[in-house]
Amino acid sequence: MKSLSSTLWTPSVLALAISTFFLQAETAKDKEQTWDVNAPQGQFETVDIKVSKGTWMNIALSPDGKTLAFDLLGDIYTMPVTGGKATLLTKDIGWQMQPAFSPDGKFIAYTSDEGGGDNIWIMRADGSEPRAVTNETFRLLNSPAWSPDGEFIVARKHFTASRSLGAGEIWQYHKTGGSDIMLTARENDQKDLGEPAFSPDGKYIYFSQDDTPGKTFHYSKDSESGIYKIKRFERETGKWETILDGAGGAIRPTPSPDGKYLAYIRRVDFQSTLFLYDLTSGEHIKLYDGLDRDMQETWAIHGVYPSLSWTPDNKALLFWAGGEIKQLTVADKTLATIPFQVETSKQIQTAVQVKQNIDNDQVKTKMLRFVQVSPDGKQAVFTALGHLYITDVDEPNPKRLTKQSTDFEFYPQFSRDGKQLVYVSWNDNEQGAVNLLNLRNGRVTKLTDEPGKYVEPVFSPDGKTVVYRKAGAGSLLPRQWSLHTGLYKISSKGGKPELISQTGRSPMFGADNDAVYAMHNSPAPSLLRIDLTKHSQQTLYTAKFGTEFKLSPDGKYLAFADRFKVFVTPFTERGSAIDISGNDKQFPVKQLSVRAGEYISWSGDSRNLYWSLGPELYHASIDGLFDFSDKTDFAAKDGVDLSFNVAADFPRGSVAFVGGQVITMKGDEIIQDGVVLVENNKIKAVGKRSDVAVPVNAKVFDITGKTIMPGLFDAHAHGSQGSNQITPQQNWQNYASLAFGVTAIHDPSNDTREVFSASEMQQAGIIAGPRIFSTGTILYGAEGAGYTSHIDSLEDAKFHLQRLQKAGAFSVKSYNQPRRNQRQQVIQAARELNMLVVPEGGSLMQHNLTMIVDGHTTIEHALPAAKVYDDVKQLWQASKTAYTPTLVVAYGGIWGENYWYEKTEVWKHPKMRTYVPMDELAPRSMRRPTAPQHHYNHFSVAKTAKELSDIGVVTNIGAHGQREGLGAHWEIWMFAQGGMSPLEALKTATINPAKTFGMDHQLGSLEAGKLADLIVIDGNPLDDIRVSDKVQFTMVNGRLYDANTLNEIGLRERKRARFELDPSL
User: What does pTM read for this prediction?
Assistant: First the structure.
């Protein structure tokens, strides 16, 4: 294998034998051209690994039965079959796994990502002369198996479509490379197939397949009903047949050398068990019930259980279990352990960590929405902080457009003459309206009479008609007035609206008044033309990755956003749909944006295009763009900053909490009969009652018999912050969070525009809720317009990180980027831009481990293995990567969320009934499935998290949006079930997330000078962790709420408005 030059590494001895070094810098161009998985840019450490137990080890025995090969932490080793010190064959940052001996024993096939992504490689049995057999860049491969004649290798190829989960197919390759041959075609895009194995005579290929009903993948399936089946493919005829299925499933088919038996694994109860199947008689023989748990109930593209191996004489099986290599004699079922010792070192990147500053007196508006430029190009209008603002483009100084304070304002659009503006308003109780604003005198005229959720209004060219969309309620908005959705037209003088189409969004006009154009997303993003009289429709354009179309006022040009960049092309029609993209060759397509862009608008003369990115407005002229000139430098590189600052909201004065137990989270400090004094939005003092002087003018709360502690920080939250970009004035999900003491959330997947707008509004005191941090939209590795983030270079990675950073992100979610080099490039881009990377590993064990090696800030979601051993612990201990296992959805078995539905009456919880609509609360919580306790996966995940926490891995709660507010407490309680003390469990919800996100100098503990985010609990969670949800007071940045009513109290008395969703209504 290729090794890194010794001149790049400068070892020094530290705890766990860590050494630090830096790779030499290269120019950006060189970086793009020479990216090497084995030598990525960044900061590295050397970690010594010394183990005799390993995690998820694939086993292969040489044909002569003398040499055993296995993988451990991304390297491949061999040793005598009798055991001993293992010989390292591969040693790279690249991840090598799944060794398979050739029939003559001279070669080993294996899976390696060192070429960029997972491909099939072969090397000589001594580790020399490694070379790639396959070179896939998207449909990646794993699980190699040799044909009996040693000429061919079959492997599992991975296919993804709209979901990154994907499906598998078996493909065949010659050992020297060349073209491939598909053997098994996938039946759908989400059900897995893999673990190929040849029969000894070469006639068949066995494999396992997720054969549950339907076409979509679901986590936490019922293994008792059977998930996987073992099938075999007949090479001569191409036919499939099912060999094994039924209760407990059937996985890892391993034919004996004489072809008489098939070793396989299935569940017995919840225990993965090794069986022998007699291919002649059909008899099933139970061999061993001490295996580690398989991965049938999660997504396991690299194999549902590590590979097994027969001895050449058919007498014994070798396999991994309990962290060890076992040899089982089939005849008498005697078991022996083959000892191994691995001593090696691995290079890992230092985890990306960035110190944040959230202690600000001013709120900078970064997420400007619906930015539109006036027809004369002189002014821009947009929504920020829930209201309309207008500014000159040349000398930006945004000002409110209206004076009203009862409604939010969204979706502004200029009339063609620039004299009027049409927009929508929103009020939680009165709902929405379409309004006209006279820009000369400021008069507002309401066009619609009926309440509703109105969005995307636009004027016809002559200004006589307004077309808008009526949307549904979603989960956030009142359910009433949500019928008859679709596109409507109405006279600009008012009157009765007319439905013109039940489909379509983002309507726009070209040069004519008799037709409107609109986007549609089914089955792919497309542009429709709708006749306003006949209501007939025609699809004109499709764009697989298109997110926005905007026709020029003269109808001659079409601007569009594709993969987040802005393009323009001459507009034409042909009677059927034209598929278009940013690299289209049918017509001239010009890229106008260097950076990302959205909210496209045209000048009135159709000669200038505008778009925005966060707070920045960009402009490009199209003059001469489609002439015969040599003009090439037309892309807009720099934008105009339209942002502005407003004061951050917090009360003025002092509040003292006196007499309670204080859990400071400063180490293990506990103060009895304590005082926490808050001044404005900062903690002024913390100590015993006798040591803290309370000002005479302070608002005092007697909390005797109660506990005060830092507010909860949900490190992996999800929840809508808007519906069709309508931000509710009171978001019941945010209020539920406050009611349960959640004072900060980090949402690693949300609509960029909605979530950062809500964050700014919360900081400014316009809406109530926890502090809202987010990655914005994910950097998706599969296909989806507005989600797919195409990364082939460091510059690509920086492009995507910058577009999110502009909007307000300090972190990004790298979501199942398929190739290792892509994930490394995201990490390096984050280092250069001072951002954090929280990845989605999709329950893929091997990818999760490479994410630790590559320096990701966290691992999000549970490792799918029920138990990890010393190798993973030593690796992880040396990294600074945090762990957010999201126990409520812990991969590998029944989710933790379901445990609490079974064991408690969630729908009766008074706070849930107050703040969560019953149609959201009841479906999962009232009729509840039951299961034996050992089937609940979160117990093993929490136990592993406790073991990792004990060796220094920072572990966080992450309620995943499964159950509003209460889910954060479930996470705490489940950590306690895994063995954490109550104090340790509470740290996962307070100081630990603050450390993870670089905020522990300002949040996470009760210490003088820190921001005042705290909660008061009616009881002592150190005695009974289950009282943690009995929150009486919640304070966010000095704003104090009664956690039962969510009225603001203390220094300001503000009564919460009633929800339209209140049960009392």
Answer: 0.95
